[in-house]
Amino acid sequence: MTMRGRLITLTLIALLGLIVGGCSRHKEAYYQQALCEQLGGEMEYRLPDRSRVDCLTDAYAIEVEFAKKWAEGIGQSLYYAQETGRQPAIGIIVRDTRADARRLHRLKRLARRLHIKLYQITGD
Q1: CA triplet 70, 97, 115: central angle to 5 degrees?
Q2: By Cβ atoms counted within 10 A, which residue in 42, 43, 86, 88 is the most buried?
Q3: Structural domain spans, the chain
């Protein structure tokens, strides 16, 4: 095999690895469904303004987010709690413990202060 052929083969193998590796990661809806089923909640509860609570239980309005979107999760959980009369909660998906540590630390500090319940979900 020529040098060019080897390079093309290695490039294709690397691309295939990226594609397969990317496909093995679940989307947010996967974690949302798993958490909501575990808690016995209602998924995608629609509010009068057409926004949707990821999971609504008797006690909590839960927003499910990946750790990198932790700040958005705070706002959405507070809004959904206000609109449903439930307590705010966030299901935070942590895929990479080291990379997400700072985000999780910030979220935990604010969640304590704002009385937001946290469900930490370990991603794939």
Answers
A1: 40
A2: 88
A3: 26-122
